[in-house]
């Protein structure tokens, strides 16, 4: 049976990349009626330093972000990773299945550890094994993510295949990444070759879900572009990464294809297109921001939702962990 899992780190403010690449697509998937588990991955967040008070706040804010984006805790299971201990327990088994060489080839590890890998945490190196456990502890079959997570999902399949092979079982499924739509890779507004990211030092590089209308308009106005008018076909965006990014954002926000958008805005200068884009973004994100703020006013209710989610999740995860331990040969 199909089952969807995906997660987001509570490591800072949600941005438009997280919304279009992940949250909005989660809400669309939920409407298709497939059982879905969505997770705040706090154990992943602490692979780099997080102030404890900020981590708590970001986790609750992220939960509010999920719900405000359309994830309904009555329809989907909404959890915080550390509240479902089987994630970390299975991750240990996977640490013993995955190979150092596999981990060392991960581009996210190389990007984040940089030149000073000696000083990076062991957790940052092992991150993809925990991610594999997050997915496989549910026997999830589909994982909607942004393009940046493709390599980690291939590794998840490698871990599942090696576990099945080593123990001579057909236990963990080979999970499919679901990377589709116009905005699986939203780029920085300051540099069309870098993805929009929480950790970019420039706040002007990203639109946050908590930005007000003026800030959104200002950030789009200042977004880097070229001097040409917009083309009327997708082909014309080929060597124009910044223009392509803004058109992709417009397409994703308005649920249209890039060609449909260009049929409408082709020939426009950025002086006309950018304010229209800002207006569209505000009209789509404004209600989400307002709903997030409303939910954040009652953190106890958020905690109740997460506690109930953890209970529901453990009905799935506890038997899968138990069976894994039996396969591995643990007495218990
Ligand atoms: N720019 C993006 N475009 C499309 N999708 C994106 N995602 C992240 N950035 C983009 C998707 O959002 C989900 C959750 O991301 P995460 O919080 O686990 O990932 P992240 O990579 O830590 O997010 P950031 O903003 O890029 O943080 P830093 O700067 O710390 O690396 C995932 O599905 C991801 O694909």
Automatic annotation (TrEMBL):
PROSITE patterns, alphabetized: AA_TRNA_LIGASE_I (PS00178)
Residue positions binding ATP: 9-11, 17-18, 146-148, 186, 195-199
Binding site for L-tryptophan: 134
Spans traversing the lipid bilayer: none
CDD domains with a match to the protein in the record: TrpRS_core (cd00806)
Cell location: Cytoplasm
Reactions this protein catalyses: tRNA(Trp) + L-tryptophan + ATP = L-tryptophyl-tRNA(Trp) + AMP + diphosphate + H(+)
Keywords: Aminoacyl-tRNA synthetase, ATP-binding, Cytoplasm, Ligase, Nucleotide-binding, Protein biosynthesis
Entry EC number(s): 6.1.1.2
Any single Gene Ontology cellular-component annotation: cytosol
InterPro entries: aa-tRNA-synth_I_CS (IPR001412), aa-tRNA-synth_Ic (IPR002305), Rossmann-like_a/b/a_fold (IPR014729), Trp-tRNA-ligase (IPR002306), Trp-tRNA-ligase_bac-type (IPR024109), Trp-tRNA_synthetase (IPR050203)
Subunit structure: Homodimer.
Protein name in the entry: Tryptophan--tRNA ligase
